[in-house]
Each structure stands twice: as structure tokens, then as C-alpha cells.
Amino acid sequence: MPALTSRTFLKYISRNLYCTLTSLLVLVIYYGINTYNLSPYKTNEWKVEVSTSVVKIKSDAIPELNYILLWGDPEQAPFCHFGEGRSVFEENNCSCTNCYVTSDRNHLQDYTQFKAVIFYGPSLDDLVSRNQLPRRRSPHQLYIYLNLESAANYPVCTERWNGYFNLTWTYRLDSDLVWRYYEFHNESGYDVAPRASVYWQENKANYRNEDLAEVVRGKRKAAAWFVSNCDTTSMREDLGGQIRQNLRNYDFDIDIYGDCGSLLCPVSAMDICLMKLEREYYFYIAFENALSDDYVTEKVVHALNHRTVPIVFGGANYSRFLPPGSYLDAREMGARRTAQRIAELIRRPNEYIQLFNWRNYYRVRAIAPGIQACHLCAAINKRPVPRNTTIQFRRWWTPLTSCRDVIIANLH
């Protein structure tokens, strides 16, 4: 064996040093890539460990699927609408069906391996109090804030959630994903509303529909209200009572169904109640339980799909949600003027029918909860998937007055 010369020794050392430095550089780059967005995940009141480890996925997992973890009770609405697995995407004929939903945090052995984790807004305080939030997260995960309840009823009054979520999924029209209860489609099939900016077709022709005219001729009662929450943040029950009192001056009344009235309409018989609404009533009371931006629920659909005019009350700009001239806005008009207008329209059937003029240009379609999952899967399939965090989450979600009320309540 030849003697090891100094020149050979230097070449040997240089080669090994080069390999070592190259390996270290690769590790540094890999770590940097995987932790470049670590800081947005640090909230003001706790730090979340960012996991960059590679965990072997269970053998029965399908690599091309996007796995979505529901971080909460799967029986609770709206999680209950998603079910388990891929069925919600397949049964609703979603454009993307390569998503898999589960509430099993061990489905992939390590919950940091899920593509997305969904948190339900009203459950956040409970998760914090029980120390049930994730302790680790991957920089490749999407944390999604889902909330269908109003910001007024479920405010976020702490800065701890700033920078925590990557996507927002709520009723608000400026959410990353908007949970819609219905859509208006024009004659071309394009959904025009609800949107933050809407162009409504100008009403040029009188609405003529003999079938509707026949239905209107059969109506005998002023308004119906299906309601069971009798003590609300919006105090809708007070306004409803004032309208009712004023309406009696014109020999009309509001029939109240549910826990807040004397008439019955169980959920199991809702279809029958809605047919009764269409057949007997001119107006439907669609009052929201809170006055929050864009908070418009499925109540208006009851009226629109059953040839009845909605009377709305809420914190939304209703021109983003409903065609002009298709509704009465009780918050804008007040109790006395609303009652007066109801009586006028009942006594002028031809004028009342023109409140359906929007049917010349649009069709309204209720959106089933399962369809919402289609939007979720489509968003997760986007390339690149958005990974920005909502830095000023509290300021975006919560009206200051709601937090003030929470502070006052806590003091007492």
C-alpha cells in the first residue's frame, strides 16, 4: 500500500470538508424553508411549537388526498354537515373531490400532517379553558376559522388570535371563504349576489304572473313570524312588538309561531308551515338576532321561495343581499312606518305584486350546507395555497361595542 503523502492527505481532508459543509448548508436551507413563517403563528399569549419533522403517514392513507381535521365536536353544527371521509364532496358533485374530512386527530398518526385544521369560532373560549388547542403545528398547514354565528353574539375580545388563522370562513362577504345561505342568479346563470359589490338590473317592466296573482288573491293574513329565541342581542322582539301594536291600528296582526308566540310550527313540520306561509300571508318577519356586518341568515329564503315578501331587520347592508324593491327594511323605516306600509300594500294588491318584479331577472337558490364543503376543497386545492395569516383578526371580526359589553358583563 503506497504511503499517504501530504498532498493526498490534503485532498482527502478537503473533499470530506466540502461534503460536510454542503450537507450543513442543505440542512440550513431546509430548516429555513420550513420555518420561514414561524413568527406569524406566535400569538400574544402563547407560543405554538412549529413542527418540521417528517412523520410517516399511516399505510391506509391516500397520498393524493387533502386531509382536513375538524378540531371540535363532529356532532356540532356546522361540523355535522361534513360527515366523515370523502362522501360530502362526492355526493354534492364538487369540482374537487380529493379531500377527506375527519375529527380523528390520530388518523394520520400526527395531527401536524393534516393539510387543514378547522376551528369553530363559538368553541374557541372552551378550547382555551380546557387547554385543548394544538400544541404543535406545521408551517404547511392551514388553520381555518369557521363561524356562522354573529360577531355580536360571539365576539373575539383578545389579541391572542391575531396571526393565528390562515383562512377565514364566515358569513361575512370579506371572508376568504364566504358561507352563503342562498344565491341570486341572473338569466345567464351567473350568481350576482350576495356580494360586497352588486349590480342589480333596473326594474323596467311591471311584473305580470297570473299564477302569483291567484296566490295573492288567496292571502288573508298580514305577516307570520317563526321565532323561538325571545331574548336577543338585536332586541328584535321589541321592534316586532312595536310593529304588531301599530299594525293593529289597521286591523292587521302578526302571527307568531314557536316559543315566542302562541302558534306551533315544529321543525319537523317546517315544510308544511312554509306552504301555509305562501298560501295565507303577505309578509314574513325575517329579523336577525344580532346586528352584525353582513349577518343575513336563511330566514329571507323562507319568504323568497314561498311568494311572500320579507321584512328584514339586521346589521347588514341589504342592497348586497336582496334586489331593490323586494323587501321592507324595518330598521330603516321604524315600527310605525313599517306597519303603515304593510297595510298600504295589502290594500293595494297590484302594488304589492310589483315587489316580485325581481323575478323578471333573477332566480334565488338556497344553498345546502353540504355544498359549502365544495368551496372548502376547491380553496385547499389552489396552487399556491394561501398561507397568509389574519394579523389583525380581533379588529376584523369584532365590533368594539361587543367587547365593551363583554367587559361590563365580566365586571358584574
Automatic annotation (TrEMBL):
Subcellular location: Golgi apparatus, Golgi stack membrane
Domain Fucosyltransferase N-terminal: 66-181
EC numbers: 2.4.1.-
Transmembrane stretches, start-end: 12-33
Alphabetic keyword roster: Glycoprotein, Glycosyltransferase, Golgi apparatus, Membrane, Signal-anchor, Transferase, Transmembrane, Transmembrane helix
Pathway: Protein modification; protein glycosylation
Sequence similarity: Belongs to the glycosyltransferase 10 family.
Uppermost EC category: transferase
Pfam families: Glyco_tran_10_N, Glyco_transf_10
Stored PANTHER family: ALPHA-(1,3)-FUCOSYLTRANSFERASE C-RELATED (PTHR48438:SF1)
Name of the molecule in the record: Fucosyltransferase
Source organism of this protein record: Pieris brassicae (White butterfly)
